[in-house]
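Researcher: Batch entry, complex prediction.
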Amino acid sequence: MDMQATLDEIAEAVGPQIGSGVVAEYIPRLAAVNPDQFGMSVVMNDGSSYGVGDFEVPFSIQSISKVFTLVLALQASGDAIWDRVGREPSGAAFNSLAQLEFKRGIPRNPFMNAGALVVTDHLLGVSGTDANPLLDLLRTESGNPEIRPDALVSTSEAGHSDRNRSIAYLLSSFGNLRNEVGAVLDRYFDQCAISMSCAELASAGAFLSRGGVRADGTELISPLQAKRVNAVMLTAGFYDAAAEFAYRVGLPGKSGVGGGILAIVPGKCSICVWAPGLDSAGNSLVGMAALDEFTSRTGWSVF
Amino acid sequence: MDMQATLDEIAEAVGPQIGSGVVAEYIPRLAAVNPDQFGMSVVMNDGSSYGVGDFEVPFSIQSISKVFTLVLALQASGDAIWDRVGREPSGAAFNSLAQLEFKRGIPRNPFMNAGALVVTDHLLGVSGTDANPLLDLLRTESGNPEIRPDALVSTSEAGHSDRNRSIAYLLSSFGNLRNEVGAVLDRYFDQCAISMSCAELASAGAFLSRGGVRADGTELISPLQAKRVNAVMLTAGFYDAAAEFAYRVGLPGKSGVGGGILAIVPGKCSICVWAPGLDSAGNSLVGMAALDEFTSRTGWSVF
Amino acid sequence: MDMQATLDEIAEAVGPQIGSGVVAEYIPRLAAVNPDQFGMSVVMNDGSSYGVGDFEVPFSIQSISKVFTLVLALQASGDAIWDRVGREPSGAAFNSLAQLEFKRGIPRNPFMNAGALVVTDHLLGVSGTDANPLLDLLRTESGNPEIRPDALVSTSEAGHSDRNRSIAYLLSSFGNLRNEVGAVLDRYFDQCAISMSCAELASAGAFLSRGGVRADGTELISPLQAKRVNAVMLTAGFYDAAAEFAYRVGLPGKSGVGGGILAIVPGKCSICVWAPGLDSAGNSLVGMAALDEFTSRTGWSVF
Amino acid sequence: MDMQATLDEIAEAVGPQIGSGVVAEYIPRLAAVNPDQFGMSVVMNDGSSYGVGDFEVPFSIQSISKVFTLVLALQASGDAIWDRVGREPSGAAFNSLAQLEFKRGIPRNPFMNAGALVVTDHLLGVSGTDANPLLDLLRTESGNPEIRPDALVSTSEAGHSDRNRSIAYLLSSFGNLRNEVGAVLDRYFDQCAISMSCAELASAGAFLSRGGVRADGTELISPLQAKRVNAVMLTAGFYDAAAEFAYRVGLPGKSGVGGGILAIVPGKCSICVWAPGLDSAGNSLVGMAALDEFTSRTGWSVF
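Model: Structure tokens for the complex:
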């Protein structure tokens, strides 16, 4: 298969749709992003990589960060994280409080905001506020030591965070935050505000298609752990559209409201696609279409 | 009827139960209250008043304050407050977030914590942070100008307030708080922390048995408004035990986790009873029993 | 007070609204009722009675029957019925299955369809299928031995009963029906299909304003039981608009989708009003307005 | 890989657990099954097949039938079935009515009882009551023309069916059943009561590992449809433990309360395992353990 040709064809196929969807508006800084952008990168397990469109333009990774924080929590503490967060699909919007209340402070899965706050709190407890293992990981795996949060996005999130504050205080009321609420939120906003390009994200996530093996050949997490992170992505990676994505595309993946999607073909490759406009479920509209094209053209899906 | 004799009989009847129930533990300062206390006061519409037991001992009025803030909001703005809060029974615990989320930030009624926060925010908007119309009202109607919040209780509430903070930020995320979240919470904690005795509370609430008429004969709210506040108390005054109280006792009333209950016999009298131990629904166990005795002995109920 | 003059004034006041609202459509026989009808009756505790408009025209009593079956169950078995049905407001539509499932087959209150089915089952168990204590009671108290179900309405209900069948089988799955499901449903449809006029219903329900005393001076239920039935009517008599009715009108009452409402002024009188058009909550639109007028003009409410 | 040796090792590994779990009790006929049985079959895409233990003993396929009825509905009508049933995980027990009510009669997915009733109704509408395409398919693909429902199981289910009747009438009340309720239920009970062995079920389901291709080489459904059925099995095949199964085992599968599980390794093989004892989520306890062993030993999972 000529992967570069495939990406070129996908870009041409989705071209007429570029600019579709609605850019996330609840974070002012994101609302100002030019919607007419589209990029896609593929990093093969053999190390070769491909890109099309705006694949080297940085964007706000937002909830895609949740995959990496989960991986770091598993690396640091193994299955202990599952005492504090479940791994069931939510069947509800990403920021639902009702479920959290019903479950007495145990979030349904690590990819809902509540679950990611718990994972963030867990990592803070393991590494302390001075260390930032997420930035370390992303920089090393992507090969770009300059990766960092966009301070304006982070400030913008903090200033429009009533819902996340409500969730964090509810977690705290159930005893499922161990650090100070404000410190957890600040770290969480910083993680979501990290800027990376498609090329960088596809590289950074490639260990999930390589059974947990980092770019330098060492093991970040075990093959079983990598397989299981992929399983959680498939069942819970797209808010309440996870089953729909499994049905249409059939790949583990994780989306962010910045318009990015990281998807994994286990044993084959890591993919990142980006287009800012979102569909009604909060996932990149053109990104979903591009992944649909990708699985149709390559025949690669897990099913 | 010899009301003093009736109160003495009630005190004797519930005597063996005094000390029963569980003192509210989530607010440390309240948890330290001596549970073996019981007081009851009745203020008749003719101005006569009666008391038994610890009826002159101040206690933390807690959620009973919500009746008075609702009255002040109705006085200030009429039915406008109902655009921001409903008046249906909750069918759920007093601090449920699930309902609030489902209703998109409109609390079910003004006696749930969420509803009281909205009413507090409304009053702050009307009067500003410098004025305190609640203290003014309680002082004037009770005749005690020294009534004030217990600073230790207020601080204690603020320090154990994750759940209320979660509710307040959720309200704010739906645009149903207009003042700064922290300022609304501080005022709310201060209101709940006010200390009053049974005698003072029965006097302060007597306008509700007099069709809205204050102690000095002027009208605080209209007879129709007073009737309607009584209706809201009957259907929503006891968290999720409101219908149970209507069934057993049959009077409009409002309880607080400090162990106090204010009850109204429209056209006849205002009653306040206090005993710190709570039942499983969060209402004063001995207080409920005393009111049960009261309606049995007097035959006074609204039904 | 000149009660006849009051009724005449009410009829004049609501006159322009007569015909408003939507006649119940899910039962074909009811959908064919002429909407331009209005009647109202009052039976005073002194035995005098008054009427205006179509107060002698029979209509389908529907859910108003639930008050009388509850009374008969209390008469037969005392508080035992409360082991099988709660007495909390539903906070949901009258035919919700979700709550019933959550509560494992214990209906929230005896006035929801599920609760009335349990009460009907209980009465069938007490009296057997040959006896019909409901008809006996209604005939004796109203003085009309010809009262009976309208066979066409009953058949019509049975033919459009998927929802009620679903509820009944769910109750049965939780073990909360003791008779055969079909037999319970048939009896339930027959009870709802009973035809009575405002004059007859006001007479039949008057024992609730007389502390449980029948027309012949004997006690049907105790004063305490009568008071408690009134309490359940106030908190649960109007589907999810019960608190709204308490707020606006302030009387215990029970509505039916045939457009009738029975309301009680404890110690004073029994009222029945009828107009076929319903509001969005399923209560008679003009009937609610007439009761609103009634309490405004008489000043009679429980609050 | 020596598949027979692998199966022998698995049987030895789970041996100590055989007999664990609780046999389904709500269907008397199933409750009488000897719990100390275990069988497992694998049918490779090259046509070879393997078995261990009681792999030729027939058992009640129960909900595994739902995979085949979904396939037949897709074959007959394509995506039209998705207008009547969703494909989201339920996040709730397999027989929940609450969700069904909230979604106004559209079941969450075709593997919940409600969804399977709708699919059954759809097939009845397509084929009529005389034809039985499900039996035709199972007989042809398994090579056993004697496959049929166990009449005693079917009768037993019909006699303990209050919950399913409740669901069916609720579907009907929302207009989402087109045939007579009793006829749909009878057909549904018959489908669940079909008896097959592990060997037969693995053969019958093998088209899902072959991209929709039947044993005779013809196409039953398209490769895309087969992939999508696999996706629905992965996200919804194990009641509210679907994500857990994806996490632990990582294969599309469908369980039944008879203790059987059908699992698919796309492109490789079809697997059926059976052991009557169930875990708390209603899935075969030993069957789950055997599949866990299978993926560990073969390294075959979709992730």
